[in-house]
Structures are given as structure tokens and as C-alpha cells.
Please model this.
Amino acid sequence: MLAFKTPCLKEVYGFGKVEKRKVVADFSGGEITSDAGLLLISTVDRTVRLSQQIAACFEDHRDPTRIEHKLDDLIAQRIYGLIQGYPDLNDHDQLRHDPLFGVAVGKLESRHTRSAALAGKSTMHRLEQAVNESKDPSAYQGLSVNPEQLRTLFVEFALDQHSIAPARMILDMDVTDDEVHGHQEQSFYNTYYDSTCYAPLLIFWGRHLLAARLRPSNIDPAEGALEEIARIIPLIQQRWPQTLIMVRGDSAYARDDLMTWCEAHNVDYVFGLSKNERLLRITQDLVASVENDYRQRKQLAQDCFEKHLGKDIVNEAQLQPLVTPALWYRSVPYQTLDTWSKSRRVVCKLTYDEKGINRRFLVTSYWAEAVSPGRLYCEQYCPRGEMENRIKEHQLDLFSDRTSAHRFEVNQLRLWFSSFAYTLMQALRDRGLFKTELATAQMGTIRKTLLKMGARVRISVRRVHIAFCSSSPLRALFDKVYQRLIAATNTG
Model:
């Protein structure tokens, strides 16, 4: 963010002496930015044309002769602000004066001598109101958006990042809580999250975000999941008809309509399944075997302990770390009494330790001959936990929880802007950060390490000179990322 000159403040701040030299400070530094790394983001954006593609999903009804801020400039400014850590519209009343943001957006001068080059909070607010569906057809609306085109853009953009069709795709679905603190439309108290919130549904393909659907929190956790899957998967199959697709989620998605749709469209699935009395009874015959396995492991550990240490009495606290829990898997056919239309394969994971027996269940479309129960649980289902890291990046690093507008549709658009900021950061990670120390870093770490760089900005008639710190330890990394992005821009 720009450090402004403030003519009314003439103080000089003293900080003692260093080697007989006085240490003084003032606010006469001129145009200094803390966001110089945004140059890399704007370079990625020019290559992948994300801001332009988003703008194509809007309609601009403004008088072209009176437009100060182009639509794609507004969208870029909003997304760049989120990426650099400025989530609120009020932030843009200061950011509009930052020449580095002007360079990134591509606009350094205003048509009006008294105005800043970039848009302020009021103009950015009107951008978010593009979803305002007025009941009065005569009401003026400068901007409008096509939500379906935006939803489709997430999928098509992710597919465009791969020139070769993958052999297999795994789509992860999950819900998170988006706590609110006002009178937002369709916000309700949720007992599970113990807060008044929204419950957005997110769908990821690895690190690529395919869908971000804002939902009230008083609905079924699986509400809208089938609609999103039925929208996304045909787009993938149309582009890559030979690619195998698997859908993965927790027990909230083990619904007959979703599984039936997957079976009818050649899509595999692995979902968690809540335990019930029938499932426990079906797998009860294995409990004694698993317990006996654990007792044998414990006895073997005790014998080894006594043999090496020569003790007749072994302390439980000393023995416990040497005993591994007994772990068994089993596949069983299962059909609910009322809700499932057919019998399906259920996998049970049984573990036994000092706390007793623990059973977890999955339901899957994979036949037992194709994937063993142990492999299915460990290799196909458990990796879905990685999606939690993507949700944290989306929500904490890119502020997708800033849904503080009153109208639900506006909050959905805010969620999409944060989602596109995530998408652009992922493009930077894919194109510039591979095989670097930041290749797998969280987006908040990438921002703090690479994007929040201080620099002096000098603007003359012929050029804009951005001077980084000469002793910056990030110089080699910045150079590597820059060279990669420029090469991608030239080839693109």
C-alpha cells in the first residue's frame, strides 16, 4: 500500500544514535509501495486473460463517452486488492492512489485532473451491485452479470490450464461455514457450527477451484451438490471424453440421487457413510478377530520388552508406544431400508486399541475386484483431507468469508471475486512457482513472501521506474519467477 506524503505533518522522528549518527525518520519518502510483487500477478493475468474473461460475463450499460473506469479494469482492481490482502471496498479509496496498482491495472492517469487513476469504494460498490435484479424494468443499472457464464468460467479456465487431457480426475466436494455478523439475507443460525452463517459449497479438482456456491445454512448439507456435479461433469466430458472421473466427499453426500446420477453417467464415487445399527451388526463378526489381533500384538510387544530389559513387570505407559492398533478392512453389500434404490458396496475400516473398537464406513461405485478395501480407504478416500487446505486458503487468505453485504446475490458475487483471486494465485503457482521453495506454499505465505515487496516508484514522461531493495533476499526467486512468466507470455 502506498505511503502518502502528508504536508500537514512536518515532524521528524528521532530514534537515537548508531555509531555516533543520529537516526531520524519522516514522511518525505514520496511514492513508495509495499505491493511491488503485484507486478507478477498482473503479468500472469495478462497471459491467462482471466480479468478479461470475467469481464466478458458482464454487460456494461454505461454511456461509453462518460466511462472513466473500464469494466475489466474494475474487475482486475478488485481481484488484485484481494490477492494483496485488501478485502474491503473501503481499502480502494487509498489503493486508487497507489501507482503500483495503477501499473498493474494498466491505468496511471484519469480523464479528470482532480481524480485518481483508479476507482474508489463507491465505483467498486457499483461493480458488486451488478447482480441487483430489480423488479422495476425501467430502473437504471450500469452493470449486470450473467451468473451462469461465471460458473462455467471456473470450469473452462481450469481445463484450459492443461494442454493434455489427464487420465483421471478427482473432484472433491465439501461445505464450510461463513459466519456473518449482521442482517444478511438468507443467513440463519446453524447448531453444528454454533453461529449465524452461510454454508458455501466448494468443489475442487486438486488445487483448481471448479465451483463456489453460496448457500443458506438452514438447508441439507448436500443441497445443490447434484446440481453442481450435473453441471460441471458434462463440461469435462465434452472436452475430455476419455478421462475417468471420480467424485469424493464425506457422509453428507452419500445420497441416492447423487450416486444414481454418477452411475448413470459413468462417474465413480467414494463417499463417507454414517454408521448405524444395521452396519454395526453386519460387521459385528469381525470385532472379536480384530480384538484378538490387538491382544496378540500387545503380548508380542510385552515379550520383547521383557526380553531386552529383563523385567518381569512391564509398565503400561512404557508398553503402549510399542503396540500398534489392529487395523482390518472389509467390503459388504448394503442397502438402506428406505432411501437407497439399490444395493451398493460399503467398505468398513475397523481399528482396535486400548480405547476399544472403532468402525468407519464408505460407500463406493468401485467393484471389489477393481480396488481392495484397504487401498480404497487409504488411497482413494483419505487424500480428500487435502481439500481442507484449499478451503483455508480460499477463506482465510483470500477473504471469501467477507460476505457482509445485505443482499444474498451480492454476497454470492463477493464469494466469486475471492474465488477468482484464488484462481489467479493458482495460475501464478502453476506457471511461476513450480520447483521453487514456494511451490507448495499456502497462498498467504506466497503473498507475504513474494508479493508484499517494498519499492520506490518513480514516474516520468517516458517510463515508470520501480526500484526494489538492493539487498532483498528474494531477488533470485523473483528473477526466476519473472523469467518463467515472461517466457509463458511470449509463447502464449
About this structure: The chain has three domains: 33-142+437-491, 147-273+386-397, 277-364.
